[in-house]
Amino acid sequence: MKKRSAFVVACAAAMLLVLAAPAFAARAADTGVPYGWLLQLRGIKAKRTIPNYKYHAWQADPKVKATVVDDNKTADDPSDDLTYSGVALWRLVGRIDGGRVDRFDRKLATTAPGYTVVIEGVDGFTVRYTSLEVATLKNALVVADMVNGEPLALGTASIKNDVAGWKPNWPLKLVSSDASIFGNRKPSGVQRISIEPVVTQQSPF
Known about the structure:
Layout: H1 2-19, E1 38-42, E2 47-51, H2 52-59, E3 65-70, E4 82-88, H3 89-93, H4 106-110, E5 115-121, E6 126-130, H5 131-137, E7 141-147, E8 150-151, E9 155-160, E10 163-168, E11 173-176, E12 190-197
Parallel strand pairs: 1-12
Antiparallel strand pairs: 1-2, 3-4, 4-7, 5-6, 5-12, 7-8, 7-11, 9-10
């Protein structure tokens, strides 16, 4: 039974590597990270790709770096708090929102109908935010690459009824310090951020 369980876990890990293939890049130059990754940004017109070393350098800028604390569901116990750091989602959206180059167009984001921001993980799981939410939450909504000063762990394997499962965590995780953002609205294993236009229904008359 132990051999079977070990085999199933190994299969789960292999499955992640297949699913995460688009996020992998060449071997990273920065030490301590076995492989690099790419964050894909896809706007209606603009397309960008940010490699991990550029992302690390960008978020290291004190003017850019955003930090949020996750109380790990125990607000009364600070000992298990997780401190995430990365780049605020609005900054990433600003690179592909179609406005001024590399600057978030707040007017476009907050004026109806706005647009939809889609965050996709390496496992295909997607979460959608309105552009108004992104503009309102600002630095409280962060795409993190570090937790407690260390790179994110790869993920967690599990077995339920002899079925292998994998919950990715790496390379990026969307986190928030806003109490209204919880559960599956904070996806892990983020590899792509896209913008979609809001489809408005036209009157038949």
